[in-house]
Amino acid sequence: MSAVEEKLRQMGLELPDPPKPVAAYVPCVRAGNLLFVSGQVPRVKGELKFRGHLGGELSLEEGVQAARHCALNALSAVKQELGSFDRIRRIVKVTGYVASAAGFNDQPKVLDGASLLLHELLGEKGRHARAAVGVNELPLNVAVEVEMIVEIES
Fold first, then answer.
1. What is the set of domains in the chain, with CATH numbers?
2. CA dihedral 65, 68, 74, 79 (to 10 degrees)
3. Which residue from 15, 44, 93, 126 could staple onto 149, CB 3.0 to 4.6 Å apart?
């Protein structure tokens, strides 16, 4: 068991099954020593959760939880691609999209759900650059979608 998986266990979290694409794309693409992880949605035990708009049907706290689940799904895609978390050098960048009701402007706080989880699991390797973007709609009516770029050992 890797240190990341042990930390997940200690936190009472489990790595979800690797995500399956819902359209014509793949979960990850390697380019040199970078791994580009496709946008992941808040799927929990195979079921989509957290549907709607932040500041509308959903609270800030629900958005934070949604972002955490998106990050866990992204990590699952990374593990499926690499076979082990031990090959991660660092999380380079996280981009998060937040379905936002009019007037909602706490997208950075929502994305902290993903960012803080990555830092807690990976330590300094989990600190990253980030963009938090408010949007009108997301696929499947989910509230949050997270993609990331990961630097890996060759």
1. 3-152 (3.30.1330.40)
2. -130
3. 93
User: Is the Cβ–Cβ distance between 144 and 66 less than 8 Å?
Assistant: yes
Distance CA 76, CA 85 (A): 10
The answer to whether the CB of 125 falls within 8 A of the CB of 94 is no
Bridge pairing between strands 144-152 and 43-44: unpaired
Global pTM reads 0.96
Residue at 105: amino acid letter:
N
Greatest C-alpha distance within the chain: 45
Which tokens hold the place of 64? 């934070």
What is the b/e burial string over 87-100, where b = at least 16 CB atoms within 10 angstroms of the residue's CB?
bbebbeebbbbbbb
pLDDT by position in tens, the chain (length 154): 788 999 999 999 989 998 888 899 999 999 999 999 999 999 999 899 999 999 999 999 999 999 999 999 999 999 999 999 999 999 999 999 999 999 999 999 999 999 999 999 999 999 999 999 999 999 999 999 999 999 999 8
